[in-house]
Amino acid sequence: MFRKLLCTLVTIITLSAWIVSHGGEVHASNATNDLSNVNYAEEVIYHIVTDRFKDGDPDNNPQGQLFSNGCSDLTKYCGGDWQGIIDEIESGYLPDMGITALWISPPVENVFDLHPEGFSSYHGYWARDFKKTNPFFGDFDDFSRLIETAHAHDIKVVIDFVPNHTSPVDIEDGALYDNGTLLGHYSTDANNYFYNYGGSDFSDYENSIYRNLYDLASLNQQHSFIDKYLKESIQLWLDTGIDGIRVDAVAHMPLGWQKAFISSVYDYNPVFTFGEWFTGAQGSNHYHHFVNNSGMSALDFRYAQVAQDVLRNQKGTMHDIYDMLASTQLDYERPQDQVTFIDNHDIDRFTVEGRDTRTTDIGLAFLLTSRGVPAIYYGTENYMTGKGDPGNRKMMESFDQTTTAYQVIQKLAPLRQENKAVAYGSTKERWINDDVLIYERSFNGDYLLVAINKNVNQAYTISGLLTEMPAQVYHDVLDSLLDGQSLAVKENGTVDSFLLGPGEVSVWQHISESGSAPVIGQVGPPMGKPGDAVKISGSGFGSEPGTVYFRDTKIDVLTWDDETIVITLPETLGGKAQISVTNSDGVTSNGYDFQLLTGKQESVRFVVDNAHTNYGENVYLVGNVPELGNWNPADAIGPMFNQVVYSYPTWYYDVSVPADTALEFKFIIVDGNGNVTWESGGNHNYRVTSGSTDTVRVSFRR
């Protein structure tokens, strides 16, 4: 507790570098930003579908066919609003659970008409005006009260944001408004505000990006006005005091534009940002590339799919669980930053009607003790059931604080801020069979040892268990809520054989007084440009300032304590490299990957004509700045696209590049064996504009 209090006190600082002017006003939130919202590894998120949580103000409910009294029709509005969330913060239901952040539905104005098939936009994903509130949730005064109430209870607020599209084209023709002023419709799109290439068949990455997601009117983010409009919109919501952003449908927008967009968020007011890329248990190359290069984290569907298969559906073994943890530790550059979950509004609820609820208790215990930023779906703590959309989006059924699941969250959620091993630790398997997994998480002297038996009908004898935790008797953190037991660790780390009961979960921990050496757990935001302030979290840095390096370049330090360092990014060659900390005793930490941008980012579409290739060959882009690979073919941008916006032999790609910068670039052709053929002649030249997207188009030089 002392360590947590000390860390909180020393991070309440003023960084005058964050004073930013917008619209002629100076935003005090930027002037006093202490970067407290960039690292969510120590947070526990509670995910609320706003319309389905609680009707706190019946006066703002829609009238007529949009509304379902009693929520008998799950495709209509049911009355949940921001006042309902405020009520359950003030009642103690949310704070007492131990959650530290709320993720709520998109707050913007949605279409007011029904879909031809009878659906309403209760979910918030059919935007009409990004600069106005959804009146059925409340007005800006209501939203401000939600922020103020949450913050008064040390709870952060994350909003869902949907820059990919407006609404289905069959509702108001995908209309887009700017604070009440109509900008355009999908079918009469004289300004090219939308992508009009038809619906996607999801056959490849390009098709998923530039064609409509189902019948939704896809916005043309590369259009300079739409780019400006979306940036203005998110800044408006940042000014309300939100603490994080979940970006919808990131698999369906250009990576280059999204990277520039997220960079603009970090320039304006840095908050934790994660995207939604619906993927299977194995992920994909495009998915992993996005997570590691976009500047944002991701909603970890890989984690959820495996957790549901093994723990909920009993279709796998605990070997599958550990294999997922081990593989993602390698696939993600920042595994601790990915947002994990066991159910949400896009997949089946974890609890199955008629089954033993102990399975849900086990799932929550696993979620809250394994790596990542855990997100708990509303109602899971009360064993709500439901398959698919909208069956998984029923009205909140109870605010019962006595369920076992609620108490599991209550006991385990605080560990994320008390024990660095939970927030940042690596994971090691200590004992495993098809039904049992015992894993140990460790970080610089802090430990968490978790034993899970997913079989609710059979006990197992655990023999030969080893741990790195110091010798002593450890009591179950859950206080036997899931039939846990104490554990006696001997001097050599061995443990006498014991019986792990049916459905038992035991959690043991050791928290050190301080780290023995400097170890970095997280750096946030995960990308930035020279002059930006960045926060390093971890332990063992020491009370006296030492030195921080990016590659071999020394970094200016703004604040320093044993667990938190705030630095100013240096003027040096950008790209990906490692940040490291050397304490005052000369001991150097681990290296932590960080993406240093050349400068403020803009999205530019690079187009090359007459680039003829043979079967199996692709065209890539490479140039003179890190954002273009620094002339290194291994870091080139691509493979470029050639089917939707332009057709072969014309190739194109949207790229995030430094504004107001003279670029030199070339195109290369890479065959299936990795052989590179460079474009002949001199370099192409282009100067990036500032404050706008752009397109540069050249012919391939044979």
Automatic annotation (TrEMBL):
Group of enzyme by EC: transferase
Disulfide bonds: C71-C78
Amino acids binding Ca(2+) 2: N164, I209, H252
Pfam family, any one: TIG
Cofactor (UniProt): Ca(2+)
EC number: 2.4.1.19
GO terms classed as biological process: carbohydrate metabolic process
Family: Belongs to the glycosyl hydrolase 13 family.
The name this protein goes by in its record: Cyclomaltodextrin glucanotransferase
Natural source organism: Evansella clarkii
Lineage: Bacteria, Bacillati, Bacillota, Bacilli, Bacillales
Gene: cgt
